[in-house]
Amino acid sequence: DEESWIKEKKLLVGSEDYGRDLTGVQNLKKKHKRLETELGSHEPAIQAVQEAGEKLMDVSNLGVPEIEQRLKALNQAWAELKQLAATRGQKLDESLTYQQFLAKVEEEEAWISEKQQLLSVEDYGDNMAAVQGLLKKHDAFETDFQAHNERGKDICDDGQTLINEGNHHAESINQRCQQLQNKLDHLRSLAKRRKAKLVDNSAYLQF
């Protein structure tokens, strides 16, 4: 019975689950690919039912309105199923790019929290050599920070592209970009404070 087969598949493609992480999305995409193959190979069966119904109406006048109605309903259900499958496929693609975006954001946030701990250390050197060493380290951090700040901008530009393309995770993408920017700004101000204290300490020790 084609109608109940379509009904069963509609439940599958109507699912709102688009995966909670990269692996989850990849698995759902594999499942969806199998389903699309199944739909493709099922098309001839649907056509066969259509043709059989039309032949029946040609040779007999009995039950024509009912057959017509059933064929129309079958056609509509099949078209809806294909549309739902296409929409789900697109949303799974969007979820994949969203998860890839998230992975980059989380990588940057991990770097930020590691550096945040280092910048919060209260050691400013107890002699000139120590201060010079710490200042050198700090300069290296600042170079590193510039690179990560640029990377953060690039990630958020990519995020904005996803939003402009209508990705259905737009709200979350926007939030994560703002959050990343705030964390980078906070790290910058911590770095500024530490640099000032190191410079002060250097001046104090020279004095």
Automatic annotation (TrEMBL):
InterPro entries: Spectrin/alpha-actinin, Spectrin_repeat. The keyword Phosphoprotein applies. One of its GO terms (molecular function) is actin binding. Residues 163-197 form a coiled coil. It is found in: Cytoplasm, Cytoskeleton. Keywords: Actin capping, Actin-binding, Coiled coil, Cytoplasm, Cytoskeleton, Phosphoprotein, Repeat. One of its GO terms (biological process) is neuromuscular synaptic transmission. GO terms for cellular component: cytoskeleton; fusome; lateral plasma membrane; neuromuscular junction; spectrosome. The keyword Repeat applies. SUPFAM superfamilies: Spectrin repeat. Belongs to the spectrin family. This is Alpha spectrin.
